[in-house]
Amino acid sequence: MTTTSAALERRNLGLLVAVQSLGGASPPIIISLGGLVGQMLSSTPSAATLPVSLYQLGLALSTLPAAWLMLRAGRRTAYLLGAVMGMLSGLVAAWGISQSDFMLFCLGTTLAGFYGACVQSYRFAAIDAVGDPARHAGAISRVMVGGLIAAVIGPQVVIWTRDTLPMTPFAGSFYSQAALALLALPLLLLLRLPPAPPKAVAHGARDLSEIVRTPQFIVAATAGVVSYGLMAFLMTAAPMAMVGCGHSVGEAALGIQWHVLAMFGPSFFTGRLMDRFGKRRITALGLILIAASGALALMGLALTHFWGALVLLGLGWNFGFIGATALLTEAYRPSERAKVQALNDFLVFGTVAVASFGSGQLLHSVGWDGINLGMLPLVVVVLALLAWQGLRQRQQMTARG
């Protein structure tokens, strides 16, 4: 690698960390307050989580058009549009609160989904930035460190700004969400990423239907879906469950802050762990930690139980989802990356959206304990798939040897 290319790589990764820090702060704001604002504005208790669910749905539906835009106009153009949508979404949500208009607030959180899809794509931009497949896991892990900063920014914005406009509680936090997206714009303008592979190269790409039938894609996508889906499902319900059990809004926001810190804190060394122990083992460790979070949540309703479960859930997501992302890179060739990455994120965030729509109703009907108990079988399924893939690979190596 030349000195110039090394400097450009460091610059791009640094910028991606910075915009991840700013863009990654939006979901904690929406998730911490979406259900509470929903309770305040909606006349139907089961619809309280609809704003958060619509954010997840907007994210899922945006993955494919965002990927198409990245392929046609480049990642930077798509990311700039995403930040503009992030600004608009915060302003619309805040205006909905000020007008006591539940549907307008829901529109604001839905618009934030496109920004969320772009922010989630930053991890794939990190792969493009380094090029060398041997360093993909480290690059993903490094950019995800930006989420650690977002874990401080997002919840603290909630705490500092939720009452800044006394006549419209929580509106100040959504105005702040718009301001964070505005700050990301000049940084995105400085981003310089390699172009997509030329069409001539893409002619050798396999059909998507062929790729999705490979064991590599099946295991990676399933692990990503379950890791992210369970995390988002439980994180959506947790603030309402905490407030319902007598804990304060501030304590719920701090619980989400510790959760998001746990989500991104291990990113400093997740890449090295995967290099040492393997992507599959680290992914499995993540799923085991998610199961442990459910077990702790079932032990009680004290603040320590909620916070401890959220921390374990965050750690499990980090190892499970980053591991699944790294496993996904083994399922496609460079010319296939755009469509496979887009499909993977559509599956992940589509599942998250569906799960999120049911979280409020499930919390209302089966309670916090029922939600945590019900997620354990899904973890077992993914662990079985990872074990099957490991056995299959060992058998193939033995046959070749």
From TrEMBL:
<feature type="transmembrane region" description="Helical">
    <location>
        <begin position="252"/>
        <end position="270"/>
    </location>
</feature>
<dbReference type="Pfam" id="PF07690">
    <property type="entry name" value="MFS_1"/>
</dbReference>
<protein>
    <submittedName>
        <fullName>MFS transporter</fullName>
    </submittedName>
</protein>
<dbReference type="InterPro" id="IPR036259">
    <property type="entry name" value="MFS_trans_sf"/>
</dbReference>
<feature type="domain" description="Major facilitator superfamily (MFS) profile">
    <location>
        <begin position="216"/>
        <end position="401"/>
    </location>
</feature>
<feature type="transmembrane region" description="Helical">
    <location>
        <begin position="214"/>
        <end position="240"/>
    </location>
</feature>
<feature type="transmembrane region" description="Helical">
    <location>
        <begin position="340"/>
        <end position="359"/>
    </location>
</feature>
<dbReference type="InterPro" id="IPR020846">
    <property type="entry name" value="MFS_dom"/>
</dbReference>
<feature type="transmembrane region" description="Helical">
    <location>
        <begin position="371"/>
        <end position="391"/>
    </location>
</feature>
<feature type="transmembrane region" description="Helical">
    <location>
        <begin position="309"/>
        <end position="328"/>
    </location>
</feature>
<feature type="transmembrane region" description="Helical">
    <location>
        <begin position="102"/>
        <end position="122"/>
    </location>
</feature>
<feature type="transmembrane region" description="Helical">
    <location>
        <begin position="282"/>
        <end position="303"/>
    </location>
</feature>
<keyword id="KW-0812">Transmembrane</keyword>
<keyword id="KW-1133">Transmembrane helix</keyword>
<keyword id="KW-0472">Membrane</keyword>
<feature type="transmembrane region" description="Helical">
    <location>
        <begin position="78"/>
        <end position="96"/>
    </location>
</feature>
<feature type="transmembrane region" description="Helical">
    <location>
        <begin position="12"/>
        <end position="33"/>
    </location>
</feature>
<feature type="transmembrane region" description="Helical">
    <location>
        <begin position="53"/>
        <end position="71"/>
    </location>
</feature>
<feature type="transmembrane region" description="Helical">
    <location>
        <begin position="174"/>
        <end position="193"/>
    </location>
</feature>
<feature type="transmembrane region" description="Helical">
    <location>
        <begin position="143"/>
        <end position="162"/>
    </location>
</feature>
<dbReference type="InterPro" id="IPR011701">
    <property type="entry name" value="MFS"/>
</dbReference>
